[in-house]
Design brief:
The chain contains eight helices and 14 strands. By secondary structure, it is an alpha/beta fold. The chain has two domains: 140 residues, Rossmann fold (3-Layer(aba) Sandwich); 187 residues, Dihydrodipicolinate Reductase, domain 2, CATH 3.30.360.10. The strands form three sheets. A six-stranded parallel beta sheet has the order 5-2-1-6-7-8, sandwiched between helices. A six-stranded mixed beta sheet has the order 10-9-11-14-13-12. Helix 3 crosses helix 5 and helix 3 packs across helix 8. The termini are close together.
Length: 341
């Protein structure tokens, strides 16, 4: 018998992607349920070649399922994740609500798969921030070989990280510019079309944003608490695909060619890197859309620090940055005996 799985938040962009990836990766689910709030009950969503009717999160019997993939935001997760876990299902949550809870594993399967064993404490596993995921996947092989002392990163994050309304706002503003309509920001603090906004999430007391704080503390929890990381996160007028420019200071010297070899062999990564104007090779968000891999390009020395290394990291934020990582966590739970098909 297969597993019984529910996707909580199935009508959102990430929830839909979770259903797609469960089907694409042939996750051994006997039954899959699509859950959302009451206003969406009865809507239909796709699961492979099947169509699922959305059920109400309020009345669903969570004791009937083995696993719940959640993508409903922080506040709903704080309310529902403990209830679902108490009913006996394992929760994999995509929000930031549980990431820094010491009793909740924060997991990127290519980096720290063994930490899923901590699921027994609360029956909850946290999915990291989208930019954190692709960054630590790329940093892991470098850290294992030469130990990263410090990382300075700048992110260029697509609007889909802000949900469907953010994507709609980029589309509406872009059209408005072409037809000379007024621009009225709603989701974003300023115009996003043909612009870059150096603010994601709320400001904190030190002038950083919560998104930048998340990258710092999550990298420490997932990869190594001794790594010093400083982030600047910006929203760019791209629909899907996040980019990270990472500048690393290493404890040991590491030449770019050796770094490329490490990255080429690392799980979850695809190296596409050729600095040749006649035949260049590097990845942009457009090429990452719909792909499982995290892509790395522009690997080179950073001469401004001792043992400096720089790289360009690109990933589909709806996939590896959210839905794919959640499904990979579920696969890891299965492989390590925490779920039984």
């Amino acid at each position: 018998m297969g597993l019984k799985v529910a996707v909580f938040g199935a009508t959102g962009a990430v929830g839909k992607e979770m259903l797609t990836i469960l089907a694409e990766r042939m996750f051994p689910a006997e039954t899959v349920y699509a859950l959302a709030t009451r206003k969406s009950v009865g809507r239909e969503v796709s699961y492979g070649d099947k169509t699922l009717k959305v059920k109400d999160v309020e009345t669903f019997d969570y004791s009937s399922v083995d696993l719940v993939l959640m993508s409903a935001g922080g506040e709903p997760s704080k309310v529902w994740a403990p209830k679902i876990a108490a009913a006996g299902a394992i929760v994999i949550d995509n929000s930031s609500a549980w990431r820094m809870d010491p009793d909740v594993p924060l997991v990127v399967p290519e980096v720290n798969p063994e930490t899923v064993d901590g699921v027994k404490k609360k029956n909850i596993i946290a999915n990291p921030n989208c930019s954190t995921i692709q960054t630590v996947v790329a940093l892991k092989p470098i850290h294992d070989r030469a130990k990263i002392k410090r990382a300075s990163v700048a992110t260029y994050q697509s609007v889909s990280g802000g949900g469907q309304e953010a994507m709609d706002e980029l589309w509406t503003q872009t059209r408005a510019i072409y037809v000379n309509d007024p621009i009225e920001p709603s989701v974003f603090p300023k115009q996003i079309a043909f612009n870059v906004i150096p603010k994601i999430d709320d400001f904190m007391e030190d002038g950083s944003t919560k998104e930048e704080w998340k990258m710092t503390v999550e990298t420490k929890k997932i990869l190594d608490p001794s790594i010093k990381l400083f982030a600047t996160c910006a929203r760019v007028p791209v629909f899907v695909g996040h980019c990270v420019a990472a500048h690393l200071e290493l404890e040991e010297a590491l030449e770019p060619d050796e770094a490329r070899n490490l990255l080429r062999e690392a799980p979850g990564l695809m190296l596409i890197d050729r600095a040749d104007d006649d035949d260049p090779a590097f990845v942009t968000p457009v090429e990452s859309v719909g792909e499982f891999a995290t892509f790395v390009s522009r690997v080179r020395n950073d001469p401004t620090v001792e043992n400096g290394l720089a790289m360009w990291i690109v990933s589909d934020n709806l996939r590896k940055g959210a839905a794919l990582n959640a499904v990979q966590i579920a696969e890891t739970l299965l492989n390590r005996g925490h779920l039984r098909a």
